[in-house]
Specification:
This protein has helices at residues 15-20, 46-52, 73-78, 94-103, 148-163, 177-180, 194-197, 202-210, and strands at 2-6, 28-34, 60-65, 83-87, 107-112, 130-134, 168-172, 189-192. The protein is an alpha/beta fold. It has an eight-stranded parallel beta barrel.
């Protein structure tokens, strides 16, 4: 299982220093973009993401928690995103937004909230590069893992094998060594933020997840 580091709780006064001891121990950088409408919080935008490219060449997994993600795809591509994931619950045409992301030669993902069923994105699975299952309500770091996500990643894993789909299965929310054991056999990568960055041993915690 690969690890995507969520930098939502990074020390923004010195991002480079905050990441330098852990960045080589993770596989992706997960970037939570919040617009204050889709979720009741605001994080950062494409200018910040662009600045991160000076720090690392790790793949950027950009997660748009936005009402209208389709309006900003070009900017997040130009900022250096390798994957752009938006929510099926957003106010946009999902297939058109996937096609738009692909038109920039960037990989496209769909995310689903804890109460959204996999059935709601089944028709889109053949054209996706990633499915992000939220195991917390999106918008805030440090929340407790919701077991409802376990059945979803199992279902997505079964569908992937049955139809030979190519999407990566990702999970985000409350991921640490004691919760990742329940999903490690069904996901390709897992997002972890506070368990790593807010720890006294960030590198060791990242490696714990990778070596499960």
């Amino acid at each position: 299982m690969d690890v995507a580091l969520s930098i939502l709780t990074v020390d923004y006064s010195d991002v480079r220093k905050s990441l330098e001891n852990v960045i080589d121990s993770v596989d992706y950088i997960h970037l939570d973009v919040m617009d204050g409408e889709f979720v009741p919080n605001i994080s950062f935008g494409y200018s910040f993401i662009k600045s991160l490219r000076k720090i690392t060449d790790k793949p950027f997994d950009t997660h748009l928690m936005m009402v209208h993600p389709n309006k900003y795809i070009k900017e997040f591509v130009e900022a250096g995103s390798d994957y752009i994931t938006f929510h099926i619950e957003a106010d946009c045409d999902a297939k058109e937004t996937i096609d738009l992301i692909h038109s920039f030669n960037v990989k496209a993902g769909i995310s689903i909230k804890p109460n959204t069923k996999v059935d709601e994105i089944k028709d889109l699975l053949p054209c996706l590069d990633m499915v992000l299952v939220m195991s917390v309500e999106p918008g805030f770091g440090g929340q407790k893992f919701m077991p409802i996500a376990i059945d979803k990643v199992k279902e997505l894993s079964e569908l992937k094998k049955k139809y030979n789909y190519n999407y990566l299965i990702n999970i985000d929310g409350g991921i640490k060594d004691t919760t990742a054991v329940y999903i490690k056999d069904y996901v390709d990568l897992a997002v972890s933020g506070s368990y790593i960055l807010n720890s006294d041993t960030p590198k060791e915690n990242a490696l714990k997840l990778k070596n499960l």
